[in-house]
Amino acid sequence: MSKDNNTPRDGKTAKDTHYANLRRAHRDAKRERGELPTPRPGRKKPAADWKAPPVPADTVLLYGLHTVKAAIANRARTPIKLRVTKNALAKLELDASEVLACPIEIVQPSEIDSLLGPDAIHQGVMLEARPLPVRKLNSLKDKPLLLVLDQVTDPHNVGAILRSAVAFDAGAVITTERHSPAESGVLAKSASGALELIPYIQIANLAEVLDDLHHLGFQTIGLDSEGPEPLEETFTGEKVALVLGAEGKGLRQKTRSTCKALARLDMPGAIKSLNVSNAAAIALYAARTHFSR
Predict the structure, then answer these.
(1) What is the pLDDT of residues 78-122, one digit of tens each?
(2) CATH number of residue 63's parent domain
(3) Are residues 198 and 276 in the same domain?
(4) What is the pTM of this model?
(5) Local structure of 254: helix, strand or coil
(6) Within 10 Å of residue 7's Cβ, how many Cβ atoms?
(7) Are the CB atoms for 222 and 261 separated by under 8 Å?
(8) What is the domain extent for residue 72?
(9) Same-domain check for residues 118 and 245
C-alpha cells in the first residue's frame, strides 16, 4: 500500500510540528523563569564538569522563590545581595522595606546557573545572606515539643522534616554537627521557607544534649521499630523531645541508651518502615494529639 502523498517524508504532520513548537516555547519560558537549567552553548557538558565558585564561610547561597521570600522576611536573617530575573522579582512581591534592606541585581538565569550549578532549580532567584544566628538550648525550655535527629545526613530529608516541624509547631530541630547537613541552599530549598521559621540547632555531642534536655524537663523518646510500646502509649510528660535516627542504621546505641524511652510506630500494612521524614511527621502528629488531651 502506498503512503498518502500528503504525508511528509520525515513522518511528521503539521499537527506534530505545532505541538513540538508549543513544547519548545513552554521549555523556553520555564528557562527564562529559572525553573529549568539554561543549556550551555555548544555541546552539552555533564553536570560533573561544573565547579562551585568559592563562597566565604560566613555566607550562604539561598535559592527558590519560597525560600528567598521567607529569608528576606526573616528579621534574624541578614541579606547581602539578591540576584534575580525580572520575572522572578515580580513574583517575590517585595514590599518597600524589603527592597531597601536588600541590594538587588537584575540578572539572566544563566548567571545564577553559573553560581549554583546546572542542576539547581532556582526559579530565577538567589540570595546571598549571612547564616542564621546560633540558638542555645536554654532558649527552648518553654517549648513543649522538640525534634532531635541522630545523624540524618540527607538535606532533602532534613528539609522535609523542618517543614513538618513548623507545621506541627515544634520548638526546634536539633541535630549533630557531624554527619548532618549544614545550613545550605539545598537544605533551605527542600524546607521551602521552613528554615527561616524554626531554630535549626547543630550540636557536638548528642548524648550530652539529651541529658541537658532531661534537666530542662523533657521526656526524650527515641523512635525504634522494635520499641517496647507504641508511641501514642509512651508519652508521660508535658514536654517531649522526639529522637529519630538515620534511615537504615536508626539510632546509635549511645543515643538509644540515653533516651528516657523507646517507642515504635505501629504499622498494620506489609511495609514496616518509613522514610525518616514521613516518620517524623507521624510522630509529631502523635505528640500534638497527646498535648491536646
Answers:
(1) 999 999 999 999 999 988 888 888 899 999 999 999 999 888 899
(2) 3.30.1330
(3) yes
(4) 0.80
(5) helix
(6) 10
(7) yes
(8) 56-129
(9) no
